[in-house]
Amino acid sequence: MTTYFKSFTQEQQVPMLRTYDPTTSRYYCSQTLPEIINSQTITPNTVHSQLPKRLCVSHLTQEYQGTYRSQGLFFQTAQPLSYAAPFDLMTLTTGKSFTSSDYLDQFISGHEQFRVESLEQLFQQFPNSSLAIEALNLFREQHGVTPIDPNRLRYNECCFEQDIKITPVALVGPSEIYRPLAIHYNLPHYETPQDRPIFF
Predict the structure, then answer these.
(1) Is the model's pLDDT at 192 over the cut of 60?
(2) CB 2 within 8 A of CB 57
(3) Is the pTM of this model over 0.70?
(4) Beta strand ranges found along 1-156 (DSSP E)
(5) What sign has the CA pseudo-torsion 164, 166, 170, 173?
(6) Distance (Å, rounded) from C-alpha 86 to C-alpha 129?
């Protein structure tokens, strides 16, 4: 079993996953946090015109401690990931927001060198986030694309292209929203991802 972190947004105090609809340029709720915990299933929710719909999560280590957002769910799964990158996959496109709203932006030629098939390959090729961002910015500059702020997007991205069965491990987020959920589901609660033990 491998532990991952999935970040959540929230609307009206409800943590949720959202999916971008390119036909309306709007986001809609695909799953709420209670729905995920009750079903112990997470469904892919991130879209891009050149990729199958995917679930994007992070595997936190001492060398990769960042997250897309600072609130969400730690979970474990035995399902193998589809692929991974040492930073947000959208930084390998010509897009500027690095979100699903860059739905039509193209991947930069040669971007495949940063996609790997396993965590083992990821950490062997890119031992830490700093080296990964350095390689990314060199790649972007070589292709005439503006480098990213090296202090941003300091997380790896692990992608699943199918529904995954999970075991919830802990909730992370503001106490007024996440602590009642943690109590209800008998899960540990942390204010930030960095507050929890680095390894469960």
Answers:
(1) yes
(2) no
(3) yes
(4) 2-7, 9-11, 14-21, 26-32, 41-42, 46-48, 51-57, 72-77, 83-85
(5) positive
(6) 7
